[in-house]
Amino acid sequence: MTRRERMGVQIRNATKDDVSIFIDWARQEGWNPGIHDGECHYAVDPAGWFLAEEDGEITGTLVVTNYDSSFSFGGFYIIREDARGRGVGWKLWNHGMCHAGERNFGGDGVFEMQNKYAGNAGLIYAYRNIRWQGIAEGCEQQDLVPVQDIPLDALSAYDSLHFPGERRKFVEKWISRDETQALAFLQPDESIGGYGVIRRCFEGYKIGPIFADTPDIANCLLDGLTGSIPGEVFYFDTPEPNAAAVTMACERNMDEVFGTARMYSRYVPELPLQEIFGVTSFELG
């Protein structure tokens, strides 16, 4: 027997110093994560970051973030190419699902893996997400304010209306990183009518999320966010069932470049998809 056959696959928790491995592997896969995505996600649930190792070499990555007591989201699920087909991924997956426990688990999988996730892992298909690429041509919007001017509790409460779990800690970090801009639209009564974030990635910028009460507010947010990066390449991830969001991308002559299947383990949450114009992150929700 070889040493690899004797040792088998070992799963361990990733440390904060390991986070760069997840980001680098995602980058190599062409997923183009944000430059600060790792630190934002890791802070939410450090115990949910896992590495598969064989003979001391890393052969797989997976993150399962428990946002609250009822919802978990997974991502950064990558098996090194030369280690695929040996059961590494299945062992890593099962380890992650133990961390999720009884929570409803969500994830965005590439289209070609959709049937495998449904058949092997029992995940339920909900809808498609589409990634669009374009050139920023927005401009400053007088109706928008920096989210830092809004109490975090209020912003988190609005976010929770559009996400299956409570993620205050994540939102706090997501809106405050360098090379990130976050804007909100306030109604006449000072209540939040929408908010959006744009962040630098390894290639260009990504919008995410854009949650808004109406398409007009969403358009205002998209123009305001892209107005901060004139002429730059940016990406916008829209749930396909939100026809108004797809129209926003098409009207800006954006090209469809990628997509995912949103899937869940127990049930499809009842979310106001007509108010979800931009997905926060394919990696972790």
Automatic annotation (TrEMBL):
It comes from the Archaea. Residues 9-162 form the N-acetyltransferase domain. InterPro entries: Acyl/Acetyltrans_Enzymes, Acyl_CoA_acyltransferase, GNAT_dom, YitH/HolE_GNAT. One of its GO terms (molecular function) is acyltransferase activity, transferring groups other than amino-acyl groups. This is GNAT family N-acetyltransferase. It comes from Methanogenium marinum.
